[in-house]
Write a structure and sequence with these properties.
Blueprint (H helix, E strand, L loop, with lengths): L3 E7 L2 E8 L2 E8 L10 H6 L3 E6 L16 H15 L4 E6 L1 H12 L4 E7 L8 H12 L8 H7 L3 H9 L2 E3 L2 E3 L4 H11 L4 H6 L4 E8 L4 H9 L4 E10 L2 H4 L1 H12 L3
Parallel strand pairs: 3-4, 3-5, 5-6, 6-9, 9-10
Antiparallel strand pairs: 1-2, 2-4, 7-8
Helix pairs in contact: 2-3, 4-7, 5-6
Length: 263
Protein backbone atom coordinates (compact mmCIF):
# COMPACT_ATOMS: atom_id res chain seq x y z
CA UNK A 1 0.00 0.00 0.00
CA UNK A 2 1.26 3.44 -0.91
CA UNK A 3 1.50 5.97 1.92
CA UNK A 4 -0.66 9.06 1.99
CA UNK A 5 1.17 12.39 2.16
CA UNK A 6 -0.47 15.22 3.98
CA UNK A 7 0.56 18.32 5.89
CA UNK A 8 -0.44 20.23 9.00
CA UNK A 9 0.33 23.81 9.94
CA UNK A 10 1.39 24.93 13.39
CA UNK A 11 2.34 28.58 13.95
CA UNK A 12 4.55 29.53 11.00
CA UNK A 13 5.68 25.98 10.15
CA UNK A 14 4.20 23.44 7.76
CA UNK A 15 4.91 19.83 8.72
CA UNK A 16 4.69 17.24 5.97
CA UNK A 17 3.89 13.63 6.87
CA UNK A 18 3.48 10.21 5.34
CA UNK A 19 0.81 7.94 6.79
CA UNK A 20 0.12 4.23 6.46
CA UNK A 21 -3.23 2.98 7.80
CA UNK A 22 -3.54 0.23 10.37
CA UNK A 23 -4.36 -0.55 13.95
CA UNK A 24 -3.70 1.75 16.87
CA UNK A 25 -1.61 2.43 18.82
CA UNK A 26 0.21 4.15 16.01
CA UNK A 27 3.95 4.02 15.49
CA UNK A 28 5.56 7.40 14.82
CA UNK A 29 8.92 7.40 13.01
CA UNK A 30 11.37 10.31 13.28
CA UNK A 31 14.32 10.59 10.86
CA UNK A 32 17.80 11.95 11.51
CA UNK A 33 19.66 15.10 10.47
CA UNK A 34 19.47 15.91 6.74
CA UNK A 35 17.10 12.99 6.24
CA UNK A 36 13.37 12.77 5.71
CA UNK A 37 10.38 10.54 6.30
CA UNK A 38 11.00 8.79 2.98
CA UNK A 39 14.10 6.96 4.19
CA UNK A 40 12.07 5.29 6.93
CA UNK A 41 9.36 3.97 4.62
CA UNK A 42 10.93 0.47 4.47
CA UNK A 43 10.79 0.40 8.28
CA UNK A 44 7.16 1.57 8.21
CA UNK A 45 6.17 -1.13 5.73
CA UNK A 46 7.75 -3.79 7.94
CA UNK A 47 5.30 -2.82 10.70
CA UNK A 48 2.46 -4.43 8.78
CA UNK A 49 -0.93 -3.99 10.42
CA UNK A 50 0.07 -1.00 12.54
CA UNK A 51 -0.88 2.59 11.79
CA UNK A 52 2.38 4.42 11.02
CA UNK A 53 3.10 8.15 10.86
CA UNK A 54 6.37 9.42 9.38
CA UNK A 55 7.18 13.09 9.90
CA UNK A 56 9.49 15.37 7.93
CA UNK A 57 10.96 17.38 10.80
CA UNK A 58 11.15 21.16 10.42
CA UNK A 59 13.97 22.18 8.09
CA UNK A 60 13.83 18.79 6.35
CA UNK A 61 12.06 17.04 3.50
CA UNK A 62 8.85 18.72 2.42
CA UNK A 63 8.32 20.57 5.69
CA UNK A 64 9.20 24.26 6.08
CA UNK A 65 12.77 24.53 4.84
CA UNK A 66 13.99 27.53 6.88
CA UNK A 67 12.03 27.65 10.16
CA UNK A 68 12.89 30.60 12.36
CA UNK A 69 12.88 28.49 15.52
CA UNK A 70 15.41 25.67 15.33
CA UNK A 71 15.55 24.90 19.04
CA UNK A 72 15.08 21.45 20.47
CA UNK A 73 11.90 22.69 22.11
CA UNK A 74 10.45 23.57 18.70
CA UNK A 75 11.20 20.12 17.30
CA UNK A 76 9.64 18.51 20.36
CA UNK A 77 6.52 20.68 20.13
CA UNK A 78 6.10 19.63 16.49
CA UNK A 79 6.05 15.93 17.36
CA UNK A 80 3.74 16.48 20.33
CA UNK A 81 1.33 18.33 18.05
CA UNK A 82 1.41 15.54 15.47
CA UNK A 83 0.67 12.90 18.10
CA UNK A 84 -2.18 14.88 19.61
CA UNK A 85 -3.74 15.55 16.20
CA UNK A 86 -3.11 12.29 14.38
CA UNK A 87 -3.20 9.52 17.00
CA UNK A 88 -6.04 8.41 19.23
CA UNK A 89 -3.74 7.88 22.20
CA UNK A 90 -0.13 7.18 23.19
CA UNK A 91 2.15 6.06 20.36
CA UNK A 92 5.19 3.86 19.98
CA UNK A 93 7.93 6.36 19.12
CA UNK A 94 10.95 5.43 16.97
CA UNK A 95 13.79 7.82 16.12
CA UNK A 96 17.21 7.67 14.46
CA UNK A 97 20.19 9.88 15.38
CA UNK A 98 18.92 13.47 15.71
CA UNK A 99 15.43 11.99 15.49
CA UNK A 100 16.26 9.72 18.43
CA UNK A 101 17.21 12.81 20.42
CA UNK A 102 13.90 14.44 19.47
CA UNK A 103 12.00 11.29 20.47
CA UNK A 104 13.80 11.09 23.81
CA UNK A 105 12.88 14.69 24.63
CA UNK A 106 9.25 14.09 23.61
CA UNK A 107 9.06 11.09 25.95
CA UNK A 108 10.54 13.19 28.76
CA UNK A 109 8.24 16.18 28.21
CA UNK A 110 5.03 14.22 27.58
CA UNK A 111 5.19 10.72 29.08
CA UNK A 112 1.44 10.44 28.58
CA UNK A 113 1.95 10.40 24.80
CA UNK A 114 4.62 7.68 24.52
CA UNK A 115 3.89 4.01 25.18
CA UNK A 116 7.23 2.53 24.10
CA UNK A 117 10.28 3.92 22.37
CA UNK A 118 13.12 2.76 20.12
CA UNK A 119 16.22 4.93 19.74
CA UNK A 120 18.66 4.11 16.92
CA UNK A 121 22.16 5.57 17.29
CA UNK A 122 21.15 8.27 19.75
CA UNK A 123 22.35 9.62 23.07
CA UNK A 124 21.70 12.37 25.60
CA UNK A 125 23.33 14.97 23.34
CA UNK A 126 26.96 15.29 22.35
CA UNK A 127 29.28 16.70 19.70
CA UNK A 128 31.80 19.49 19.18
CA UNK A 129 31.58 22.75 17.17
CA UNK A 130 34.42 21.63 14.91
CA UNK A 131 32.45 18.52 13.98
CA UNK A 132 29.38 20.61 13.22
CA UNK A 133 31.38 22.96 11.01
CA UNK A 134 32.86 20.02 9.12
CA UNK A 135 29.38 18.58 8.61
CA UNK A 136 28.12 21.94 7.33
CA UNK A 137 31.04 22.17 4.92
CA UNK A 138 30.22 18.71 3.62
CA UNK A 139 26.59 19.61 2.98
CA UNK A 140 27.49 22.97 1.43
CA UNK A 141 29.98 21.21 -0.83
CA UNK A 142 27.43 19.03 -2.59
CA UNK A 143 27.87 19.53 -6.33
CA UNK A 144 24.19 20.23 -6.88
CA UNK A 145 22.25 20.41 -9.05
CA UNK A 146 22.72 16.80 -10.09
CA UNK A 147 21.58 15.55 -13.48
CA UNK A 148 20.47 12.12 -12.26
CA UNK A 149 19.98 10.33 -8.95
CA UNK A 150 22.69 7.85 -9.94
CA UNK A 151 25.14 10.71 -10.45
CA UNK A 152 24.14 12.17 -7.10
CA UNK A 153 24.64 8.90 -5.21
CA UNK A 154 28.09 8.44 -6.73
CA UNK A 155 29.06 12.05 -6.00
CA UNK A 156 27.96 11.67 -2.37
CA UNK A 157 30.19 8.67 -1.83
CA UNK A 158 27.96 5.73 -2.69
CA UNK A 159 26.46 3.35 -0.19
CA UNK A 160 23.07 3.16 1.47
CA UNK A 161 23.04 6.68 2.93
CA UNK A 162 24.09 8.33 -0.33
CA UNK A 163 21.41 6.39 -2.16
CA UNK A 164 18.79 7.53 0.36
CA UNK A 165 19.87 11.16 -0.05
CA UNK A 166 19.80 10.80 -3.84
CA UNK A 167 16.35 9.21 -3.82
CA UNK A 168 14.91 12.16 -1.90
CA UNK A 169 16.43 15.00 -3.94
CA UNK A 170 13.99 17.64 -5.13
CA UNK A 171 13.38 18.02 -8.85
CA UNK A 172 13.94 21.65 -9.87
CA UNK A 173 14.14 23.45 -13.21
CA UNK A 174 17.91 23.06 -13.33
CA UNK A 175 18.29 19.62 -11.82
CA UNK A 176 18.12 17.67 -8.57
CA UNK A 177 18.81 19.54 -5.34
CA UNK A 178 18.79 18.67 -1.61
CA UNK A 179 15.67 19.38 0.45
CA UNK A 180 17.61 21.13 3.21
CA UNK A 181 20.04 24.02 3.70
CA UNK A 182 23.48 23.42 5.19
CA UNK A 183 23.34 26.32 7.65
CA UNK A 184 20.02 25.11 9.05
CA UNK A 185 21.53 21.66 9.57
CA UNK A 186 24.52 23.12 11.43
CA UNK A 187 22.35 25.16 13.78
CA UNK A 188 20.02 22.22 14.35
CA UNK A 189 22.81 19.82 15.29
CA UNK A 190 24.45 22.41 17.54
CA UNK A 191 21.34 22.33 19.73
CA UNK A 192 21.34 18.52 19.72
CA UNK A 193 24.89 18.60 21.12
CA UNK A 194 23.77 20.07 24.45
CA UNK A 195 23.64 17.18 26.96
CA UNK A 196 20.16 16.48 28.32
CA UNK A 197 20.88 13.90 31.01
CA UNK A 198 18.06 15.00 33.31
CA UNK A 199 15.47 14.56 30.57
CA UNK A 200 16.84 11.14 29.63
CA UNK A 201 16.83 9.95 33.24
CA UNK A 202 13.20 11.03 33.59
CA UNK A 203 11.90 8.91 30.68
CA UNK A 204 9.55 6.22 31.96
CA UNK A 205 8.58 4.58 28.67
CA UNK A 206 10.22 1.18 28.11
CA UNK A 207 13.02 1.98 25.67
CA UNK A 208 15.15 -0.09 23.31
CA UNK A 209 18.43 1.63 22.46
CA UNK A 210 19.91 0.25 19.23
CA UNK A 211 23.49 0.85 18.12
CA UNK A 212 25.40 -0.17 15.03
CA UNK A 213 28.61 -2.12 15.51
CA UNK A 214 30.23 0.44 13.19
CA UNK A 215 28.19 3.37 14.48
CA UNK A 216 29.36 6.70 15.87
CA UNK A 217 29.23 5.87 19.58
CA UNK A 218 31.96 4.09 21.54
CA UNK A 219 31.26 1.23 23.93
CA UNK A 220 31.75 3.55 26.90
CA UNK A 221 29.33 6.12 25.47
CA UNK A 222 26.71 3.46 24.81
CA UNK A 223 27.08 1.94 28.27
CA UNK A 224 26.88 5.28 30.05
CA UNK A 225 23.76 6.30 28.17
CA UNK A 226 21.86 3.06 28.72
CA UNK A 227 22.93 2.82 32.37
CA UNK A 228 21.43 6.27 33.07
CA UNK A 229 17.86 5.05 32.53
CA UNK A 230 16.50 2.00 34.34
CA UNK A 231 13.84 1.52 31.66
CA UNK A 232 16.35 1.16 28.82
CA UNK A 233 17.86 -1.95 27.25
CA UNK A 234 20.52 -2.09 24.55
CA UNK A 235 20.98 -4.03 21.33
CA UNK A 236 24.04 -3.77 19.07
CA UNK A 237 23.52 -4.71 15.43
CA UNK A 238 26.44 -6.59 13.92
CA UNK A 239 28.18 -4.97 10.93
CA UNK A 240 25.78 -2.01 11.00
CA UNK A 241 26.63 1.68 10.74
CA UNK A 242 25.11 4.84 12.18
CA UNK A 243 22.45 4.39 9.49
CA UNK A 244 21.55 0.83 10.40
CA UNK A 245 17.97 1.35 9.23
CA UNK A 246 19.48 1.56 5.74
CA UNK A 247 22.50 -0.77 5.70
CA UNK A 248 21.33 -3.41 8.23
CA UNK A 249 17.62 -3.16 7.49
CA UNK A 250 16.61 -6.75 8.24
CA UNK A 251 18.35 -6.85 11.62
CA UNK A 252 17.01 -3.40 12.47
CA UNK A 253 13.44 -4.38 11.63
CA UNK A 254 13.69 -7.58 13.66
CA UNK A 255 14.80 -5.59 16.69
CA UNK A 256 12.01 -3.01 16.29
CA UNK A 257 9.22 -5.51 15.64
CA UNK A 258 10.32 -7.76 18.49
CA UNK A 259 10.41 -4.90 20.97
CA UNK A 260 7.20 -3.15 19.94
CA UNK A 261 5.26 -6.38 19.60
CA UNK A 262 1.61 -6.44 18.65
CA UNK A 263 -0.67 -3.42 18.69
Amino acid sequence: MEPRRRAITRADVVLSMLELPGEEPAVLLVHGLAGSASELLPTARALAGRAVILVDQRGHGRSTRRPEDRSREAFVADIVDVIEREASGPVDLVGQSMGAHTAMLVAAARPDLVRRMVLLEGDQGSGAPADHEALGAFFAGWEAPFATREEAAASLGGGALAEAWAADLEETADGLRPRFDADVMVETISHVAVPRWDEWRSVVAPTLVVYGERGMFSESQQSAFVAANANATRVVLRDASHDAHLDAHDAWVRAVVSFLGAA
